[in-house]
Design goal:
alpha+beta; NADH Oxidase; four-stranded antiparallel sheet; 8 helices; about 45% helix; Nitroreductase; Nitroreductase_HadB/RutE; Nitroreductase-like
């Protein structure tokens, strides 16, 4: 019986490598924080598609504490602007869509349906407020990072910002829920003069180390 080779031709390998480089550029090396946006709307389908990518990335014990309020206009937009530093309000006001990202602090109650040992982790975290709060914030924060990359993969531009009044965001967007706002993301398509000159980054040698530990 004749076997069909599954290997790619040199031309296909080159095309695949080029596509990979273009994707890395879109996600990382050529991507910038956007400060202005066009009026082109961001659809629910685009946000849904981005989340359907981001949700598969790893978190601690597969916890899923991220909760997101979608803000487009009207009174919701005004309440959002009131909670931002004055220097960031113009950016958010011009964005067609803003995501208010929060950490669900009682996320441990969801773990039995998310992890094979979820009931055990639920009990462990129920008895340890400090660990539960730390895990809620760290897992939600890395989920936000995944979401930013997924939004970029959808061809959207993002501008993450810290709120000035997290309590106001909670009271308006997550009332009655144990959710702590952690970040706001402007989302849309880049407008005129959307980007600043890229700033420097800390180098590998300053970030990474391999401690010499005596036996």
């Amino acid at each position: 019986m004749t076997e069909v080779s599954q290997s790619l031709s040199p031309e296909s390998q080159l095309l695949e490598a080029m596509n990979a480089r273009e994707l890395l550029a879109q996600l990382f090396t050529e991507a910038h924080t956007a400060y202005t946006f066009t009026e082109e709307p961001v659809t629910d389908e685009e946000i849904h598609a981005a989340y359907d990518l981001a949700k598969w990335a790893p978190t601690g014990v597969n916890g899923q504490p991220l909760r997101v309020a979608i803000v487009r206009s009207g009174a919701a937009k005004q309440h959002l602007l009131d909670a931002l530093p004055s220097g960031n309000r113009e950016q958010a006001e011009g964005a067609p869509l803003v995501l208010v990202c929060g950490a669900k602090m009682d996320f441990h109650h969801d773990l039995p349906s998310l992890h094979p040992r979820g009931e055990r982790y639920e009990k462990l975290l129920a008895d340890n407020d400090k660990m539960r709060a730390l895990m809620a914030h760290t897992s939600a924060t890395i989920q936000v990072a995944y979401l930013i990359l997924a939004l970029r993969a959808q061809g959207l531009e993002t501008g993450p910002m810290n709120p000035d009044d997290a309590q106001l965001l909670h009271d308006y967007f997550f009332p009655g829920e144990d959710i702590e706002p952690i970040l706001v993301i402007n989302v849309g398509h880049a407008g005129p003069h959307a980007y600043q000159e890229r700033g420097p980054r800390v180098g590998y040698d300053e970030v990474f180390r391999e401690p010499q530990v005596n036996a």
